[in-house]
Amino acid sequence: MSMLRFQLAVSLDGYVAGPDQSEENPLGVGGMDLHQWLFELEAWRKEEGQEGGEVNASSLVVEEIQSNVGAYVMGRNMFGGGPGPWSEDTPWKGWWGDDPPYHTPVFVLTHHPRVPLQMEGGTTFLFVTDGIESALEQAKQAAAGMDVVLGGGADVVQQYLAAGLVDDFELHIVPILLGAGERLFDDLGGGDLKLQQLRAIEAPGVTHIRYRVATGD
Q1: Taking the alpha carbons of 99, 101, 105, 111 in that order, is the dihedral positive or negative?
Q2: What backbone phi and psi angles, to 5 degrees, belong to 35?
């Protein structure tokens, strides 16, 4: 059965991106430091077409994240290209070059229609203008029983959490303080979100905590 899940690196003060985000600095000031634990891992480097790398307690976590993924959902800001209608003169194709790391259909939430964008390596970006439920339904159909992963950003994750559509998630808690930026758990209202901790894994530079989500009573 297809599940909806996400994984995000977060600072000790709750930010998944730093302040002053821009096309030149998409993770904001200090935001890249949230992912330093990841970049030297063999499991991550292999997916990026790179050789070598470390093997430690984070390796299992990353391998699990990469497995059984049939489709992704992400927000317009995560895909990039700025707000407003899509430019026809210099069409934005994402941050990841001609061969993005997804290798599956990716459903991008946007207010502005755009024809699907087929990239190298099996990634196709499809642009959804009729809301989060429609994007999830389309993604689950495309995933054909495999999991759907929320790619971000925080606003999209909050919408799916508030709607009770997320099954579980993993936080990679990094021992830094960003002080400002994009917070993960803002705008979720009262205490309707119930979480069950499934595991905690300590690793160099990061602690991985996985939760199952249950909303309501």
Answers
A1: negative
A2: -120, 10
Rounded Cα distance, 18 and 212, in Å: 27
Contact 92, 83 (CB under 8 A): no
Average pLDDT over residues 67-73: 97
Q: Which residues contact 94 (CB under 8 A, 6 or more apart)?
A: 79, 80, 81, 100, 117, 119, 125
- The DSSP secondary structure of 43-54, one letter per residue, reads HHHHHTT----B
pLDDT for residue 186 is more than 90: no
CB 92 within 8 A of CB 81: yes
**In whole angstroms, what separates CA 65 from the centre of its chain?**
11
The rounded radius of gyration (Å) of the Cα atoms in the chain is 17
What is the per-residue pLDDT across 29-65, written as a single tens digit (0 to 9) for each? Answer: 999 999 999 999 998 888 777 889 999 999 999 999 9
On whether the CB atoms of residues 183 and 39 are closer than 8 A, the answer is no
Distance CA 58, CA 69 (A): 19
